[in-house]
Amino acid sequence: MAAKNTLHLTMSDTAAYDDDGRPRRTGTVWTGVAHIITAVIGSGVLSLAWSTAQLGWIGGPIALLSFAVGIYVSSCLLADCYRSPVTGKRNYSYIDAVKANLGTKRTWVAAFLQFLALYGTGIAYTITTATSISAILKSNCYHKKGHEAPCKYGVSSCMIIYGVLEIVMSFIPDLHNMAWVSVVAAIMSFSYSFIGLGLGIATVIRTLWSAVAHIIAGVIGSGVLSLAWSTSQLGWIGGPLALLCFAIISYISSCILADCYRSPDSVTGKRNHSYMDAVKANLGTNRTRIAGFLQFLALYGTCIAYVITTATSLSAIMKSNCYHKRGHKAPCSYGGSMYMVMFGAVQIVMSFIPDLHNMAWVSVVAAIMSFSYSFIGLGLGIATVIKNGRIMGSLRGIPTEKTVDKMWLIFQGIADISFSYPYPMIFLEIQDTLGSPPPENQTMKKATMVGILITTFFYLCCGCSGYAAFGNNTPGNLLTGFGFYEPYWLVDFANACIILHLVGGYQIYSQPIYGTAEKCFSRRFSNSGFVNDFHKLKLPLLPCLQINLFRICFRTVFVISTTAIAILFPYFNQVLGVLGAINFWPLAIFFPIEMYIVQKNIAAWSSKWIVLRTFSVACFLVNVIGLVGSLEGIIRAKLSHLNY
């Protein structure tokens, strides 16, 4: 019995200590993350806006990303130096690692530099803390006495108070016993970073909220649901890189287009209320017809895509509930045609919202819904990655048996991504809702920057998290392809958000067609009562309505036609690819560049002219690739359906 007790105590003691005789370390990945965030996100984050201001919109973000990559690489190298050799003795500090690997002389140099940096960081933290305490006092003073009041507070006393507090805290024995300090500090760092980010964004969009809401509602549509699939076709390098490239291209083309809202001068010229007005003012009647046809074709196609996506989401809700009740292997099948008809009926009613100026509430609701289902898709993707315990996927994307099949899928993935930034189609209609001063083009450029930054962040998160979760099994539609089954109520809610968003998004894309068609018919048939007369209709509990017979007929036929085509070609990814190709180069690149060249009187073969033309040609080649790949996908899907 004594021997057994002795053995038991020995085993317990061994379990309580590490291989170096010290008490067993209890740190995990998450405590390590907390320590790192506490160490990294310090006073430096408060100066990043100033640093970005010095480097500009290109240099600032590039510098941040470059330093992030550099630090990650060096950290990975340093992590391997904790033991010498790999399974050898532990190095408890940076200096121990240098001594074990590089000898005594270099240790003295490294120690001096390390302690100098740590000492300097302590000084910086003292200054920052005192400044923050002073800022609190100033903020309260300004609030009470007004923003022009002489509120001045010295920082020396605040530094002394901070120093006394740090003397007390310095008696915490070592870092292993400071997990709670790091956790609290990490939470605080997240808090003030998010507050600073939120205040910055709020300051930028204070006068732009309606434009930003229109942009987000117009951009984050059904395209976001295919990004995980597109990323899976392009792989871990090509997918994110393609998203960033299209975001940059969209921003450049949008800034060019913003200057075309007025002509001939971009600030004081005559307003162009729509995309076609701008083309006509700068490029003449013939090109206006071409641009108008392409624009309305793209808008029309987007409405078709929204019908398909909404029906798919409605069907997904029914399937989700069925799978929850009967199991994931149950034969839960629901056709989409009926749901397309239901969506069309709703759109017929909503199509009588007169114009985009009266649709701010629709855009706001749609933007909220887009945020909601994007966050849900992102969260479910991350949760699946954590559950799997690893990141799925590969650098080259999903493999195929034939090289030509892989080529078609890559082309289609590129086209789907190009569809994700479609709002140049309604760009000038949105800009036409802005007040001035400041000049509309300046406001719109700011709104574009905010809108594209927000949407690109979501696109990267949704695309990458979906691919990381499912790898080669990534569904074409992230939330309706049933990569996720549970929690079923959350999947249902996400699809409900998609439906609400696309109900509003459909109207945003259809209203320009309604407005233009009604103006054209009104001018052409100026004496027709059917086209021009309005009739009053009073319904119980509703305000008096102005009814126009032509408007009722045209908008009803429009919705019916989009619904019918969606029923005939219910191929989500392929349809998005074709629409992306129709919209991307002709409308988002070619015509804006042509208008900009004419408006700014850019001489042929000048350096600026060559840059713009080269940019246009490069985008044209990408456009052809995407269009061919998507058409091949539609033909293959239709033939497969007919054969089946």
Brief sketch in words of this structure:
It contains 21 helices and 6 strands.
Shape: globular
Q: How many beta strands in the DSSP annotation?
A: 6
Query: Approximately what portion of the residues adopt beta-strand conformation?
Result: under 5%
Q: Give the end-to-end Cα distance, rounded to a whole number of Å.
A: 75 Å
Average per-residue pLDDT, rounded, comes to 77
Q: Sketch the topology as an H/E string, one letter per element.
A: HHHEEHHHHHHEEHHHHHHHHHEEHHH
Poorly predicted regions: 1-12
Return the structural class: mainly alpha
- CATH fold node name of the largest domain: Amino acid/polyamine transporter I
The total number of structural domains is 2
Instruction: Specify the helix fraction band.
Output: over 70%
- The spatial strand order of the largest sheet comes to 1-2
CATH class of the largest domain: Mainly Alpha
CATH homologous superfamily caption of the largest domain: Amino acid/polyamine transporter I
Summarize the biggest pleated sheet: 2 strands, antiparallel
In CATH, the architecture of the largest domain is: Up-down Bundle
Radius of gyration: 30 Å
Q: What's the number of helices?
A: 21
InterPro entries: AA_transpt_TM
GO molecular function: symporter activity
Subcellular location: Cell membrane; Endomembrane system
Membrane topology: Multi-pass membrane protein
Question: Which keywords apply here?
Answer:
disordered N terminus; 644 residues; globular; mainly alpha; 72% helix; two-stranded antiparallel ribbon
